[in-house]
Amino acid sequence: MLYDFSILTSKIHEWLFAHCSPAMALLLEYVIIGTCVIGLCVFLGVSFVYMERKVAAFMQIRLGPNRVGPKGLLQAVADVVKLLLKEGIIPQASDKFLFNLAPFIVMMVAMLALAPIPFALGLQMYDINIGVFYISAVSSISVIGILMAGWASNSKYSLLGAMRSGAQIVSYELSAGLSIIAIVALAGSMSMNDIVESQRTGWWIFKGHIPAIIAFVIFIIAGTAELNRAPFDMAEAESELTAGFHTEYTGMRFAMFFLAEYVNMFTICAIGATLFLGGWMPFHIGQWEAFNHIMDFIPPIIWFFGKTFFLIFVIMWFRWTFPRLRIDQLLTLEWKYLMPISLANMILAALVVIMGWHF
Amino acid sequence: MRYLAIYIGTILRAINSLRKGMKLTGYYFTHHKEIVTHQYPENRKKMFIGDRFRGEVILTHDENNEHRCTGCSACEIACPNGTIRIISKFEIDPETQKKKKTIDEFVYHLGMCTFCNLCIVACPTDAIVMSKDFEHSMYDRKPLTKILNKRGSKLMKGVE
Known about the structure:
The complex is a heterodimer.
Chain A (H helix, E strand, L loop, with lengths): L4 H15 L2 H38 L15 H11 L10 H17 L18 H9 L2 H11 L3 H32 L4 H6 L6 H4 L1 H18 L11 H4 L9 H26 L12 H9 L2 H20 L7 H29 L4
Chain B lengths: L1 H29 L25 E4 L6 E2 L6 H5 L5 E9 L6 E11 L8 H5 L5 E4 L13 E3 L6 E2 L5
Parallel strand pairs in B: 2-7
Antiparallel strand pairs in B: 1-5, 3-4, 4-6
């Protein structure tokens, strides 16, 4: 197999265990993985900020950042430097311990959710047999960080934003989970690796036809809502709550929330790409041998990031097109529309699996 | 059954309207020709500014250094925040040997101006207009207090 990362990772593993004591080698492996994750998060944060601003600008018939660096490429870097140099103010009436803890919890959760995602063949941090379940479990911890931030700030805007965010994430978690279950039923496994492997002959969005397409649409909507992004930006709500749960945050603590939001966006889109669009699997069409071979030459990591960035673009497209929902409309959409549809879709998916109607 | 039809109809209409919105933004995203943003300091030479742009108040002078301001101070009264102050003087007309009111100084505090256009509307002789010049930033506020009538300028004949 071309481009197998497991050769590289196993070589590093063997080299470390040959040269150090087992405990030391394990520690070094953790350090390497941690560095890679932090590097990835920073890279994602910087590139998404640039991408978001450019996409927004073009959709609003503007030019976007174009002064710092060629085509404004260094604008995001300049923003990061600015945030690093800013003073971090802690409100006097706040609960100092929780106030400082909250951004770290949110960031930590965002990083934890990256663990079971297969970036390419053999490039996976933690291969557990319940990968999908793990991600949906871990990503709902972030609501605790948000509630903590809202409560500890001791500000009405923060608390309102945090409460809304709680209501929103708890309700949208359901339909996101149910749409994932449809794919789990089709693939017959919860392991991210097995799900990718089951799409060797074709992606689930094509193979699973109707239930997979409905599940994909619901997943994208629920995912956008879980990210607290516009059109579901009830937690931030610039027009009503100044900045929602991070109103009182400044400097690096604010940057943590900001970064966590973008890393979460990457995670949701990576899950979407893995479950529905075949993860790192190249695009194959049935019996077209020549075409399939050409597609195989494109490295899996490019396939994975290409699909993920496509989904991120779609979510940005939503953000800069759709009007915001009110909080009651938001809950109506979930409980009256997405929830019943995803329940019905789950039954449909079960039927498709039992009758073997998928390809 | 009827309820279900309404339910599905709502979903379909919602999807259709969202699709329309995404089609428009998608069109703008792919068609950069629609962008109307000006690249300001670079395009300074061939900048397009609309006719109704309000940069600052100027007193128009013709080639003989004559203006149309009679010193009636209608603009001073019309100004909501005291931006304009007209200091008038009496001159003896050389032809008729009569005393005549003319402006000594047309003082304009650009720093206080809100560009509301009321002075231009109030002017009975169309002496003042809004210019398109907008680069007014200064390190000191003294130059922002301007005297609009040029040195030695006279009232145009046949204006009063």
